Amino acid sequence: MYRKLPLTNLSFLLCLLLTACGGKTEGESNEPLRVTVVRAAPADMAQTLRLSGTLSAREDIAVSTPLQGLKIVAVYADAGDTVKRGQVLAQLEDVNADSQLRQTEAQLARARAQLRAQQAAATEATTTLQRYRLLAEADALSRQELDQQKSAAATAAANVEAARADIVQLQAQLKDSRNQRGKTQIIAPADGVIAKRNAEAGALTGPDALFHIIKDGTVELAADAGADELPLLQNGARAQVSVRGRNEAVGGTVRLVSPEIDSSTRFVKVRITLAHSDGLYTGTYGEANIRLPSYHAAAALPETAVSFDSEGKASVLAVDDNGRVSRVAVTAGRKQGGMVEIVSGLENGRAVVRRASAFVNEGDTVKAVEEKGK
């Protein structure tokens, strides 16, 4: 048989059950969630433009030789070496060039000796002609003998001019021979740093450059900028360039902003000249931070306070004086230094949730706490 419990006992058990299930006792209340808020306010925003690219020589000099098929006897410079203008980088086989030079020098020596002989003969013929003229005037010499001597003197004079012409021609050949022998020495055409060496001792010369020299050792960052970033760039702007493999950034200056926009990529070529520094290798990846003039934003908020949906539309979670949260659509402008410019949609001084990703939803009631230092 079941036994009936008194009503008082049933009331006691019901109270225990409600307490175990988390029922609120009289006097308890829900404490609102504490949320840090910030307020939109005017701000001077520093602008920094970040561009990436690769290091390259400002001026790459390809050093080659017109003497094809000659053996490279010795190589005196390697990649990474600093060289001076006129420095010998490599030596080519010069046996044939030297032989041709010596042969031309010998021919020139003989031609000069021949000239001296022709000049002596011409002098003698001229002296004889003068004597014959005196004899002819005294009727001691026939007219035919005088004419023969005139012809001999003219011939001697012509031989002198021919000998001189031979010397001029041989002097030109000698200059060319010396030039050809000089080409067997591969000379640095300017001061700089050797970026690449293709010359190998024992190999034959071909159409490819034997060396590539970075003129004056000047290296630049060749970067691409978007067409919309073009108005922000100008020649002479200062930059700090981070180079892969280096712990410290390298100072640089914007040297050239191309006036041409690539029609397919909408990018603009930018050249940033780097300060001289050891360990800058062409082909290395680099990233430049270019400091641009700051601008005044009429209203700005921390980036964390602004949400962007999949379509890029911006909004903030505003908190009114009663702690009520509402989502407000805003128009966001430029982003710099962790701040976002608020172009429209939010008046200055209005409180918004500091972190839009916090567990706060529109319609919640919160306890607003001003961010420290604000």
How is this structure best described in words?
By secondary structure, the protein is an alpha+beta fold. It is built from 3 helices and 20 strands. α2 (95-137) packs antiparallel against α3. The longest helix is centred in the N-terminal third of the chain and has 43 residues, at 95-137. Residues 1-5 and 7-28 have low confidence and may be disordered.
Topology:
Layout: H1 7-20, E1 33-39, E2 41-57, E3 60-63, E4 72-75, E5 82-83, E6 88-92, H2 95-137, H3 143-182, E7 185-187, E8 192-197, E9 211-215, E10 219-226, E11 238-243, E12 250-261, E13 267-274, E14 285-302, E15 307-308, E16 314-319, E17 325-336, E18 339-344, E19 351-353, E20 366-370
Parallel strand pairs: 1-20
Antiparallel strand pairs: 1-19, 2-10, 2-14, 3-9, 4-6, 5-8, 6-7, 8-9, 10-13, 11-12, 11-14, 12-13, 14-18, 15-16, 16-17, 17-18
Helix pairs in contact: 2-3
Strand content: 35-45%
What is the overall silhouette? rod-shaped
Strand numbers in spatial order across the main sheet: 2-10-13-12-11-14
* Biggest sheet character: 6 strands, antiparallel, barrel
What share of the residues lie within helices?
Answer: 25-40%
Span of the ends, CA to CA: 74 Å
**Unreliable segments (pLDDT under 50, ≥5 consecutive)?**
1-5, 7-28
> On the 0-100 scale, what is the average pLDDT?
86
Q: Write the element-wise H/E pattern from the N-terminal end onward.
A: HEEEEEEHHEEEEEEEEEEEEEE
Number of helices: 3
- Rg, rounded, reads 47 Å
- Counting DSSP E segments of at least 2 residues, the number of strands comes to 20
Q: Structural class, please?
A: alpha+beta
